[in-house]
Amino acid sequence: MKVICDSKDEECLQCGASVFHEKDSCKPCLSKSAAKCIQPFSLLLNEQTPKVKELVDYQKDKDLIIAFAEYASSLPQCLGLAANQVMMKNECIMKRFFVIHFSQGLWLLVLNPQIVKYHGSPRLKTEGCKTWPGKPIVVYRYPKIEVRFQTLPLKEGEEQKSVQRELVALAAQVFQHEIDHLNGIEEKFTNCIQRDTIQRNEKCPCGSGLKYKNCCLSQDLK
User: Residue 91 catalytic?
Assistant: First the structure.
């Protein structure tokens, strides 16, 4: 990438770093130009993600969204990342969007997501999370959901494309995980290993110290 500058040494308009004419993009940033510089991202760690209400507009927030997607793709073993899991200028990105990673390096950009319908009975899952490293989350997930969201426009200058589809299995689980972040849902943690079901004689994921069969099993079966 090249930086287009009017002078030999220009200060980045966003983060204040020096940007040099005919050199690579601003080193502390992910921008293509000094005028569109985006300060480096960092993960929000071991803190509850705040609830996000502000909708995202691709045409206005394009540089932020693209840089965010590039950052998410650089993280190891990342299946999805919500905007408010990431810090920029020491503050969470308070826009309603996230990215989901599919096979072969493909990423889906999800803008202004909604879950419009749930199918089946929720199942108890354990999940990892970039915000809570080393702390498995226990949560109920529906096996099938109908979702509505917007994604990249088909052509430059067009409005962001509206999509409605059904998601099942892992795709449904990841979508629910990321939208929970945007909605500020508080996580619950467990010491159980990650898998779809919890055995009767394992410790209950609620943290009581009792076996699952002697604690929350009866409630989960209701």
Answer: no
Distances (CA, A) of 120 to 75, 117, 123, 143, 198: 32, 10, 9, 6, 19
DSSP string across 159-214 = PPEEEEEEEEHHHHHHHHHHHHHHTTPPP-B--SPSSS---TTSBPTTSSSSBGGG
Query: What is the C-alpha to C-alpha distance for residues 68 and 13, in angstroms, rounded to an integer?
Result: 19
Q: Which of 10, 127, 178, 187 is catalytic?
A: 178
Torsion angle of C-alpha atoms 172, 109, 85, 78, degrees rounded to 10: 70
Same domain, 48 and 146: yes
Number of alpha carbons in the 13 Å side-chain half-sphere of residue 170: 8
* Structural domain for 146, as ranges: 40-189
In sequence order, the β-bridge partners of residue 189 are 137
Residue 48 lies in a domain: yes
Q: Residue 132 in contact with residue 126, Cβ under 8 Å?
A: no
Question: pTM for this one?
Answer: 0.71
**pLDDT per position as a tens digit, 11-56:** 544 444 444 443 444 444 444 444 444 457 899 999 999 999 999 9
Number of domains composing the chain:
2
**Comparing C-alpha atoms, which of 24, 40, 53 is closest to residue 88?**
40
Contact 185, 132 (CB under 8 A): no
What pLDDT, in 10s, does the model give residues 81-109? Answer: 999 999 988 899 999 999 998 766 678 89
